[in-house]
Amino acid sequence: MTPAGHTPRPPRVLVLRALGLGDLLAGVPALRGIRRAHPGCQVVLAVPPGLAEAAHATGAIDAVLPAEAPGRAVPSLAHWPGPPPDLAIDLHGNGPESRDALAALHPRRLLAHACPDGPPWRPHVHERERWCAFLHAYGIPSDPADLLLARPARPSPAPGAVVVHPGAASGSRRWPPERFAAVVRCLRAAGHRVVVTAGPGEDDLARSVAARGGLRAADVLAGGLPFGELSALVAQASLVLSGDTGLAHLAVAHGTRSVTLFGPVSPCLWGPPPGSGHLALWRPGPPGDPHGCTVDARLRRIGPGEVAAACLASLLQADPRSRRRGAEAARVH
Question: What is the pLDDT of residues 44-83, one digit of tens each?
Fold first, then answer.
């Protein structure tokens, strides 16, 4: 019985997806499906604390439970406050570790691939489709195309610029910096403003690409921009060029044109939706290690001339009146 004057706590849904920015954004359709299916509940997302602002920007959650572990390991959720969650949902992976982290909280109901009633894992479908299908198996509808974020109200630090992001979480997904620099020179020769971004610990890489590409120090947005500033930068960019990393997913979420370079993992599994102003460059082959230390062989087979041509074609399609010297600029030095 609820004491007089006491407002009862709404039922709570805990969702685990304590991974990187790209993983969070690929999970937006599933999170929104959960939100719609439980309108009277408080939806809490277990996510690294550095992604709290991005998590709230999805519009799908009410609160964040800070949860982080090295690499892609499963974090402890023992600091969950209050009584057990009414529902716990594992969007982290398909193994027993993530299931067990949620089960340790004794939720009233647990949805996970590793549960006895869990649906089979589908390894060869796109990440967005996989998690929507997982929820559908439990009677929770979700739309893989429901992935756009609201446009940020704050101004961009470089409105209309081409954003080049040479970094990635692992070496196997980092295209060589001298090739990024060659594309930067091409874009500048065609009359485009270019800025280079850096994630945490990537400042030296970004400065190297910028210097080789003939950019000023002011054109390097170093230090790992806060999410709000990064989101505004991407939303108001003319194009985003990057490897298979979180910034590529952010470009998709804002409907900003993008060219994304894939290596160890096929864009069929992690790439942008087709026919949407996003171009994924990839050389087919056996899957590689997305967390490896050295540049994937398939990624090395993508040349700077091809990337520059793809960027210039996308920019021309977006604004055919823009000034350019296409044929001359496409010759990468």
Answer: 999 999 999 999 999 999 999 999 999 889 999 999 999 9
Q: Which residues of the chain have pLDDT under 50?
A: 1, 321-333
Task: Report pLDDT for 320.
Answer: 53
CA distance 248 to 261: 9
Give the up-direction half-sphere exposure of residue 14: CA atoms within 13 A in the CB hemisphere. Answer: 30
Share of the chain above pLDDT 90, in %: 89
- 275 phi-psi bin (left φ>0, alpha ψ -120 to 50, beta other): left
In angstroms, how far is CA 190 from the centroid of its own chain?
29
Q: How far apart are CA 250 and CA 22, in angstroms?
A: 8
Percent of the chain at pLDDT > 70 equals 94
Supply 184's token pair: 């930067």
pLDDT of residue 276: 74
For residue 103, the tally of other CB atoms under 10 A from its CB is: 17
SS3 track for the chain: CCCCCCCCCCCEEEEECCCCHHHHHHCHHHHHHHHHHCCCCEEEEEECHHHHHHHHHCCCCCEEEECCCCCCCCCCCCCCCCCCCCEEEECCCCCHHHHHHHHCCCCCEEECCCCCCCCCCCCCCCHHHHHHHHHHHCCCCCCCCCCCCCCCCCCCCCCCCEEEECCCCCHHHCCCHHHHHHHHHHHHHCCCCEEEECCCCCHHHHHHHHHHCCCCHHHEECCCCCHHHHHHHHHCCCEEEEECCHHHHHHHHHCCCEEEECCCCCHHHHCCCCCCCEEEECCCCCCCCCCCCCCCHHHHCCCHHHHHHHHHHHHHHHCCCCCCCHHHHCCCC
* Whether this model's pTM surpasses 0.90: yes
Are the C-beta atoms of 85 and 108 separated by less than 8 Å?
Answer: yes
In whole angstroms, give the CA distance from residue 288 to residue 304.
21
Instruction: Give the burial string for 105-121 (b: 16+ CB within 10 Å, else e).
Output: eebeebbbbbbeebbee
